[in-house]
């Protein structure tokens, strides 16, 4: 075959346009825009947020679709074509350095999101996201509105729940320390309030708890646990001051289970997110031990009612008594009870 | 001014110098964004320096600024040389140079301030799109008329690729960039992802690949001083490339809810890409066979051959990644970033640099300032890129398997720190390589030694 200019130019164009017709022409003609069951139009504020999302290249780290095989985000719902009706551009993203945002609306409260955009490390100390504090307050509000709209009607449901509980949480906080903690504890089911921490607060456990605290909690609750972390000014109600719990530690008022439940599920309406997707059970218990020992001065680990000791654990004496009681004399190297 | 712009081969040289300059700019932005992935608080509170705005500057400057123009420049040299004529219009080539670089310039001055369409590889705003299309049309007219005025009967394979690149880009670019919607440059709804990745994948496939292939087809036989192995193979490679490549953009959104038949076409043709790639590689390899010493002994040809090797690596990776089962692990993470670096810097960039070092002495009639610096650049880029490949692939596997096993992004982030840190460290090598290249080029232009006429003539005859 001889390549003449005519063969080259006409041939190259014909093959290209035939290919292009198959790959973009036919889909344009056949794909239908049918809204999915969760789709709703964006409000003007959310649209402004979408523009900011596009302008600032958020899609380079955050995908906007959940795959069939997405175990990583709990994948309750897989993306459908109808989720993207009218979104222009619907940048799906090719990278997931940060979490997928397509169903993120309402997972966190508005004030969490605002603190997060101002400086992502306020709410997630290990985050790689840049601070967006050079954006105006209005722009951050718009971005927050956009992220909160992700997930459509499902997100609206979660948002409504956040707002409802926020009212109660703020009211409880304004009633003073005691009222606030009464309210917080009252939200935890009875069985968890009665459950002491089943894992011993060994040095290793406290180390693990400390590491988790520094990776996830430190910028709200502060390094000394008084709730004065850098995120505090953004949050309402502000993060809990753990040291106030000392007053509430009296006999039979267990704290282990309450910590566990609230770390696991978060507190809807406040900026406290749930960590059940990020932390396994033992890590949550370790964190609860660390909070108790470091900030309350007491952990109920290894107290009644307790089950059978785990086979891997060594003998462990709880050396963190409730406040107001003498620290028991620790036996020197107690012999391990071998039944 | 006009007289200057009419100087033979001046536009070709200008394109290559611009490529070297943009390489430095792109490397700076790449280096900065790599640092930001380890130290997000590095230079805080500056809107223009956040990852989401640096990344498009880095990507587009490297693609449209470094690899693209350098290859266009070498093409503007070999097109008339292979056709035994002059470029039809030197000023028209300068116009293309002007509009092309205007588009590239809109990256650093636009993206950094949020002036972007935000669609991956389609970021340039409408006006910049127009400027690029004008540049491409100028190049089409110029190439077509140069071909029409040729003294040489046969049209060599490099010229097919060079000519066709611009025909394809002029058809492709407006389509993928949805240029009929100037406000957002996007279609509403999910269909946008199909248009987006149509150009997103045709950019390396139908702009960079044919330019680089054309340049390799020029440099390798010339340095080996032997004719091309097979005309038939190059025909097959050319037609298979265009028949298959434009189909495969869909594999980027394979796991999104686009139509299933489209996914099937993308995957099948992605795998079929092995054919045109191996044809090109085999053809070049067979041409260079028995002349390994000449190729390796010539720093420019060494870079081109290095590019061919990276081409094999990236085009084994690509089809594998497009398999749905494997993509569950390789998608959405740094594996893909590694793949893109091999394709663009490894394949396109190596050949662009090699072609430039080969052609600059032919244009200026002077020896390169330093061949050792070319070898140094080769070493630096090779070390950095091999490192990128290993680090990013490993990081991608960590991320991909972790998510597949039910870990969350928040849990995987701390695991990435060592990889991201080494990647930023490796960026130093690429950045240094770009500086070495620019210095060497400028010095060659200013005080390279005059070549002897006879030697020059001998080089021309071999082409």
TrEMBL record, chain A:
One of its GO terms (molecular function) is metal ion binding. It comes from Citrifermentans bemidjiense (strain ATCC BAA-1014 / DSM 16622 / JCM 12645 / Bem). Residues 44-151, 204-295 form the Cytochrome c domain. Pfam families: Cytochrome_CBB3, FixO. Gene3D superfamilies: Cytochrome c-like domain. The gene is ccoP. Keywords: Heme, Iron, Metal-binding. Coiled coil: none annotated. It comes from the Bacteria. The lineage of its organism: Bacteria, Pseudomonadati, Thermodesulfobacteriota, Desulfuromonadia, Geobacterales. This is Cytochrome c oxidase, cbb3-type, diheme subunit. The keyword Chloroplast does not apply. Residues 313-339 are annotated as: Disordered. PANTHER family: BLL4482 PROTEIN (PTHR35008:SF4), BLL4482 PROTEIN-RELATED (PTHR35008). InterPro entries: Cyt_c-like_dom, Cyt_c-like_dom_sf, Cyt_c_oxidase_monohaem-su/FixO, Cytochrome_c-type_DH.
UniProtKB/TrEMBL annotation, chain B:
GO terms for biological process: electron transport coupled proton transport; oxidative phosphorylation; respiratory electron transport chain. GO terms for molecular function: cytochrome-c oxidase activity; heme binding. PROSITE patterns: COX1. The keyword Cytoplasm does not apply. Keywords: Electron transport, Membrane, Respiratory chain, Transmembrane, Transmembrane helix, Transport. This is Cytochrome c oxidase, cbb3-type, subunit I. The keyword Zinc does not apply. One of its GO terms (cellular component) is membrane. Residues 1-463 form the Cytochrome oxidase subunit I profile domain. The chain crosses the membrane at residues 12-39, 59-79, 91-113, 125-148, 155-175, 195-220, 232-250, 270-288, 300-320, 340-364, 376-400, 420-442. The gene is ccoN. PANTHER family: CYTOCHROME C OXIDASE SUBUNIT 1, CYTOCHROME C OXIDASE SUBUNIT 1 HOMOLOG, BACTEROID.
